[in-house]
Amino acid sequence: MLINNFLSPKDSIAAITYEGERVSYNDLVSFASTLYNKINHRCLIFCMCQNSIDSLGGYVSFLTNKVVPLLLDASMDITLLRDLINLYKPEYLWIQTSRTWEFPDEEIVFASKQYSLIKLHFNTGFQIFDDLALLLTTSGSTGSRKVVRLSYDNILSNAQSIAQYLSITADERPITSLPMNYSFGLSIINSHLLQGATLLLTSGSIMQKEFWNLLKTEKATSLSGVPYTYEILKKLRFLRMDLPFLTTMTQAGGKLDIDLNREFTEYCQSANKRFFVMYGQTEATARMSYLPCEQALLKLGSIGTAIPGGEFSLIDENGAPITECDTVGELVYRGRNVSLGYAECGDDLCKGDENAGVLLTGDLAKKDSDNYYYIVGRKKRFIKLFGNRVNLDDTERLLKALVFECACTGSDDRMLVYITESGIADEARKFISMKTGINQSAFVVKQIDSIPRNSSGKIIYSKLDI
Amino acid sequence: MSNLIKYNEAFISSFQITEDQLANLTYQSVQGWDSVGHMALIAALEESFDIMMDTDDIVDFSSYEKGKAILKKYNVTI
Questions:
Q1: What is the DSSP string of A178-203?
Q2: Best CA proximity match to A279, nearest among A375, A159, A168
Q3: pLDDT tens digits, chain A, 466 residues: what are they?
Q4: Distance between CA atoms of A68 and A320, rounded to whole angstroms?
Q5: Closest residue of chain B to A442, computed from CA coordinates
Q6: Which CATH number characterizes residue B60's domain?
Q7: Three-state SS across chain B?
Q8: pTM (predicted TM-score)
Q9: A window 394-453, beta carbon within 8 A of B
């Protein structure tokens, strides 16, 4: 399949918004071509994302016409956005018209209802690798400059695989509960557009009335979330709601608390819904594995088995394969959806396929005798705070603006920041919350006498309590 | 403690803000009032007033003022 056939023109509805807008696949294809005519060549564009028609239309226009977008959160802080613009030097910016005032010296070459196409004036001459389709950030909230390079084949193969194991048909109506610039959220959009389904678009969060009104009036058939989404759903007494039209629920983006996992699994089984626990990373486009819902209780806590077309294995510290059950090693994934590699600036866009279909996930896992995998830990220095991947080295660097030395550690939904100066714990907590845009309840700041270091000056994190 | 003081305290502690910020406070108007802060606020109010709010009221609780009207349903007058 070629990327320009990703969307097939038809009368059926591609997307419905909370505001009542409805666009057909024909409308979307026609909008994609109108927008592309203003650009008319392969180049880099920054696409500011929200779950709206114009944001979606921009994304599909760029993807199907081989313009390479970096997908960013539409509300991204202007300082962080300007940093990325200077680093990657995109030719265009697809942004909400309400934000164009932030670019007073630049030319607006096209405007739709809510979005504008801004031409930036860089003289770059960057080479863009032929198969490069899309760029996604790894840790958007800390303003990380490192992005993942995805190919057309990555996107198509992952969307096809997801559509296959979830049995997605044109009758599906998923509601967008995750950002479009987040690989999990994007995978829902891609796999459903590919099958000709209808997206229910809302930028309202599951904490807002708009979201639930759209879900009920338009009868959403599926709902997806990260572990924190499920915690909120429970507090919203979701388990007592009567939503017969909602037949599928999926979870990814981190390990769901085992009790919550069991509760939702049992609820879905009794309410005649399918519940899928899944596993993935942006470095693998999105999805790497899923737990078939009929195995959900039997294999509770497992990430399941590799998706169609993918393959898992485990390696030990020396890179040797582990074949025994219940032995922990690093999880390795092979498949067509393994990204090309990373980029850290515009010059890197010429790079080819550096991963060759093999991803060392950085996650520590074991498998059982039926070849179901279980994540037990992480090699990499990051944690997830309410679904946001946060690199601990990045937050240490951010904090250096405030404190002389610090060490960040912790577990999902709780970051521990160790500092040596006294009297500024509160300030440090506010600072890191503001910089990352993550609620301050996720951060605990502790003052200690000294940060434990080894002889070469490296922090010994194992000596710090998590 | 009066209901107003208890009501204000729930906002102040959940969002780490000061009393003078309360008047026109709406969902997402301060950094602390995101989805995480919202759940903290609801938990604080439920505990302070010993009530259990319905889903519709939790998701409709979109501002400082609106919250007062919602709590009336639970016989809490601010």
A1: S-TTSHHHHHHHHHHHHTT--EEE--
A2: A375
A3: 778 888 889 999 999 999 999 999 999 999 999 999 999 999 999 999 999 999 999 999 999 999 999 999 998 889 889 999 999 999 999 999 999 999 999 999 999 999 999 999 887 778 999 999 999 998 656 667 899 999 999 999 999 999 999 999 999 999 999 999 999 999 999 999 999 999 999 988 898 999 999 999 999 999 999 998 999 999 898 998 999 999 999 999 989 999 999 999 999 999 999 999 999 999 999 999 999 999 999 999 999 999 999 999 999 999 999 999 999 999 999 999 999 999 999 999 999 999 999 999 999 999 999 999 999 988 888 898 988 888 898 899 889 889 989 999 998 889 999 999 999 999 999 999 988 889 999 999 999 999 998 877 788 898 898 8
A4: 37
A5: B36
A6: 1.10.1200.10
A7: CCHHHHHHHHHHHHHCCCHHHCCCCECCCCCCCCHHHHHHHHHHHHHHHCCCCCHHHHHHCCEHHHHHHHHHCCCCCC
A8: 0.90
A9: 430, 433-434, 437-442
Which residues constitute the domain of residue A314? Answer: 3-376
Residue pair A89/A124 in contact by the 8 Å Cβ criterion = yes
Query: Which one of A376, A409, A425 terminates a domain?
Result: A376
Residues 174 to 213 of A: which have CB under 8 A from any B CB?
205-209, 211-212
How far is Cα of residue A422 from the mean position of the Cα atoms in its chain?
Answer: 37
Contact status, residue A284 vs residue A359, Cβ threshold 8 Å: yes
List CB contacts (< 8 A) between A437 and chain B.
Answer: 31
In a domain, B33, yes or no: yes
* Count of structural domains within chain A: 2
The answer to whether position B45 is within a domain reads: yes
- Record the tokens describing residue A432, joined without a space: 């890191």
Distance CA A244, CA A204 (A): 22
| Cα–chain center distance at B18 | 14
Which of A313, A346, A376 is at the close of a domain?
A376
Contact assessment for residue B66 and residue B38, using Cβ atoms and an 8 Å cutoff: no
Does A241 contact B32 at a Cβ distance shorter than 8 Å?
A: no
User: Testing the interface with A: which of B35, B42, B46 to mutate, by most A Cβ within 10 A?
Assistant: B35
| Cα A447–chain centre separation | 33
Candidate from A236, A434, A442 with C-beta closest to B55: A236
Instruction: Report CB contact under 8 Å: A232, B55.
Output: no
For residue A18, what is the domain's CATH number?
3.40.50.12780
- A323 and A208, same structural domain? yes
Nearest Cα to B22, choosing from B43, B7, B36?
A: B7
